[in-house]
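Action item from last week, closing it out:
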Amino acid sequence: MCEKETELLDCLAQNSRLPIDVIAKMIDVSEEEVKEMMKKLENEQIIVQYTTAVNWNVVKRDEILTAMIDVKVTPKKGVGFDSIAEKIYRYPEVKSVYLMSGTYDLSIEVEGKTMTDIATFVSQKLSTLDSVISTTTHFILKKYKHDGIILDADDDDHRIVVTP
């Protein structure tokens, strides 16, 4: 991967809606080169999706409950953790799966409408998988920062002014 492709990826990671002409100026290449690089990076599955960051804290909608589940598993010979991770990420409730260092092997982000939905997922789907030894579920109560974006920015200074 060349330096210009990395610069292009940095631009898109900051704002995937940047117009091609703006990106071309930012990385000092032609618009045609930007289009070609984007097409190449998409074909190579380096760019896999263009997304929008939404601050769901301020959107009026039915609440979605998010939980982080730490999972201890027994890796399978020859495939390690990949086989069990694949089984887990195929469930529609699962939004993310990460291989972790430390006490637990996998960290899973799961969404549901209620605590019962998440409890049912853990008890009937996740815990029943052969390699799963144990789970610990943590419910997300509030998001302050997500993917580098501060969601609850309160720029007002609430300190009391003290003068002599």
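Closing note: Helices lie at 3-14, 20-27, 31-43, 82-89, 115-126.
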